[in-house]
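Researcher: Final request for today, and then I'll write up notes for the group meeting. The sequence and the SMILES for zinc ion follow.
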Amino acid sequence: MNTKHSEWIKSQRSARVWLADSMTAEAQFAFISPLHRLQHWISSKRKQVMCWQQKGKECIYCKNGLRQQHDFTYGIFIERGNENVFYLSTNLSTHSHFQRLFSELLDNNVNPCDVVFSFERKKIATPTGGLANGYALEQMDQEVFVAEVFRPSLDSNFQNQVKNFKWTVPEEVVRKLADLEGKPFTLIDFFLAIKKTMPKLKDKTAKKYAVALIENGIVDLRKARIFRK
Ligand SMILES: [Zn+2]
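Model: Predicted protein-zinc ion complex:
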């Protein structure tokens, strides 16, 4: 890495933290199941607003054709000995990247909250074959900032949302295919539909997703998740 280490940028009004482009800083996850929100970006006001759909109401922004944005907020510890949780807002690509890493660690019996990571603000590869702004993680060989006894339990119901299953097809891909759920397709037509939705995806990867997500000629997105025992 040729980037300099920096401090997290802290909000003046809340416990939110973030990094500017190409900045790097360390943190430990307080929990691995993020808070998920749908939002819209109003460019004229340079402001995020809530998407009313998540409250089961009609959303004026959706109606006007504004794109929905996923926000996944993670709780992190940002310095040794400081038990205050700070909040890092991430997009779907970063969230997918985090969850993939957590799955690998959990498969190796490592608690993802027991690891200090280096976070770098940069362009990351998305599972749909593109690039997006996000946070890349690198595992550091470092003593944890906050010991387990002072953290939320990984066995709480909230945490289990993540701990009990893993995505075999990335969540970002599954969300892109949501409209096809339950529809009849031949394998080749489903492959073509995936390529149409995500043109940058490699043929080999698209084929793998097609095979994974079809059952008896019907698209079944539930197959994207497998549950741990
Ligand atoms: Zn909306």
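Model: The mean pLDDT is 90. The chain is about 25% helix and 30% strand.
Researcher: Thanks, that's everything.
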